[in-house]
Amino acid sequence: MLYLLWMIVNICLSLYFIFICFKATKLIRERLGLFATLIFVFALFSFVCIPPEEDKSEVNKNTWSYESSQNNDSIPYHSNRYETILLTKNLMFDINLRVSYYKDIYTNEVIPLLATTGVNGVFGGYEWKPENISIAKRNDRSFEYYVSGTIKMSLLKVSLVHQNKIYAGIIEL
Fold first, then answer.
1. What is the DSSP letter of 16?
2. What is the DSSP letter of 77?
3. pLDDT for the residue 59
């Protein structure tokens, strides 16, 4: 429910900001002229449309992958299976852990290859940022998983609240 209210507040403030921008544009046009209005609108769009800087090193932190002990291991080239675990479910969105694994046909050993998290649903005014994902073997088909991350709640693109989340459990592959 908190996430729904947060999204509604974000939408209302965004609409109010747009209303203020239209009023400011009209006022600038009346006081300073058309050329100043065009410069203001161009500058406003340039600030609004700037994509966030994406750190390429962050991508590797958001996944867990199998480390082969042999250099010529061909496991990644076999057919993979996927298992999805629901980490959290609320009114607005779900956070899932997706584990890709391989089952050796000769030894019946299950080897997890890759684990990632994802979000399904409406995600307005907040962002899921995974920080650590790990998978550890318990027995033949049972693995322990650990996922930590942060839900960043922002108001008009200004980050205000950070909620640290930790999910741990057992998955049968």
1. H
2. G
3. 45
